[in-house]
Amino acid sequence: MSQYVANPRVTFNIVSSARRVGPETQRALLVGQITSGATATAGTLVSGIPRTNAELNTLFGEASHLALIARAYREINSYTQVDALPLADNSGGTAATAVVTCSGTATAAGTLFLTVVSQYEFEWQIDVAIGDTGATIGTKIAALAAADRNMPFTTVNSSGTVTFTAANKGTHANTWLLALRGLNGSNKIPGLTIALTGWSGGATNPSLTTLFDPVQTVRYQTIVWPEAYTLSVLKNFIDARKNVDNAVMEGRGFVYLNQAFATVKTTASTTNSSEVVILTNETTSQAGTWIGPHVPEAPDVITARFAAARDRRFMDDVSISDIVATNAALDQFGGQHTASLPYFNTPLLNVGQPLIGTGYTLPEQLELEKAGVTIVGSNRSYNATIMGQVVTTYLNDVAGNVDDTWKYLEWRDTHGLIREYFQRNCQKEFRQTRMTTGTAVAGYAMVDKPAIQSFCSLLYQELTQVALTVAGLEARKYFEANLVVNLHPEKRQVQIAAKTPMVSQLGEIIGTIEYTFQTN
């Protein structure tokens, strides 16, 4: 191009900003079964699921297992990118069923509430009049079900015997809820008998052999895993991502197990993973009243709601006031700082309350926590469902030595955020750099040992500002004294070893109070 005359000749090149990079944006993965009318293709990754119920229902099928999970997640978190791995039913599978059998004739009026799967979504008020027969009650139940939407089951009434059948085949529905209650707690109407037969009979889940093939190169900080699926498949996939070369691929998998105390303990011990979190509470089985999970919700929905809350905590500048118990100003909005904020007392929004007097005792809760299991239950006022201490299933190292390094999810998330901050910012800072065992020459992309040490110290101090590493002169001196940097120019390699003081959580207060009648 032609050039005009311009002096003095001045040239400034534009270069990229030197700002730090934070952690990768949170990304979650849902796994579940779709129905035949879904627009999603089984076995093919759905990248970025929609945010509205109508769109989710079209994508996965309104009555599907996966739509139930996805709707639950999106109700709590509409911000995080969520992918899904849809599965088709196993052709040789069987769908679970539950039955409500109504008989007799009501000699008094009353009101009953029938819950199928979810108290939040599928609880129906049955108004009973004097003279109503079992067949009449069955007709009323069927009519209420027909007027509802998004049910993951079908309903058939035959002369007062109402049968619910899961829309998907497999074992996922065997632990769903079936419950009946009255206005004053009693589910008895004089002259009328209503019997509950809990969910059962579901058999043969989809094959998981090639499940994760479509996502081998995609990082997920969260995976919502159905209770019915083989947990070792998740463990093997996610454990292998904990430490990989030249990338951060780690994430955590979550599952709710509605199983017996001993079974859950054994499963946690067998899993023994810093990347897998098992949620639970006592199964409830009271004939005619409640058959299913302690919390009146589908186990996979409970998992999805907690995962959604955790993911929203990591979204920069997104309001999280409704899912944290603290009033601290800087903890009302999401970001990497929430990795060190306790997960206990996190409310599970849109989840109903268990029966008063049910659930594991404190000694049982502590035993499960020690075994690597997380308790979900009611608060002390029975007006909210909250998280207990959230622990991973990691119990011991490969040699069998007891090891609590990754015991609490907050510790594991904080470890991960610190590592990711160092990894990503070292990769950016030294993206095209010489190194020397002598002194770096100013003006060139060149570093020496003191420069690398200084940069690591700076990263540590920046992490103190987001409540992940310990602040203060003493902590910084400790970090710098224990920071080892070795340069190996013959390998074109720098080796760094750092001991990083990390913040923890206030999880317990113990003390002694002595009473006295004297004040002088």
Secondary-structure map:
Elements: E1 27-33, H1 53-60, H2 65-76, E2 81-87, E3 97-104, E4 110-116, E5 123-128, H3 134-147, E6 153-158, E7 161-166, E8 178-182, E9 192-200, E10 222-224, H4 231-239, E11 252-256, H5 261-271, E12 276-280, E13 284-286, E14 290-292, H6 299-313, H7 362-370, E15 374-378, E16 385-387, H8 409-429, E17 434-435, E18 446-447, H9 449-464, H10 473-481, E19 484-488, E20 493-497
Parallel strand pairs: 1-2, 1-10, 10-11, 11-12, 12-15, 17-18
Antiparallel strand pairs: 3-7, 3-9, 4-5, 4-8, 6-7, 8-14, 13-14, 15-16, 19-20
Helix pairs in contact: 1-2, 2-6, 8-9
Account of the protein in words:
- Helices cover 24% and strands 20% of the residues.
- Strand 4 (110-116) and strand 5 form a beta hairpin.
- With 520 residues, the protein is an alpha/beta fold.
- Helix 2 (65-76) runs parallel beside helix 6 (299-313) and helix 8 packs across helix 9.
- The chain has helices at residues 53-60, 65-76, 134-147, 231-239, 261-271, 299-313, 362-370, 409-429, 449-464, 473-481; strands at 27-33, 81-87, 97-104, 110-116, 123-128, 153-158, 161-166, 178-182, 192-200, 222-224, 252-256, 276-280, 284-286, 290-292, 374-378, 385-387, 434-435, 446-447, 484-488, 493-497.
- The protein is built from 10 helices and 20 strands.
- The strands form 5 sheets. It has a 7-stranded mixed β-sheet, sandwiched between helices. Strands 5-4-8-14-13 form a 5-stranded antiparallel β-sheet, with helices on one face.
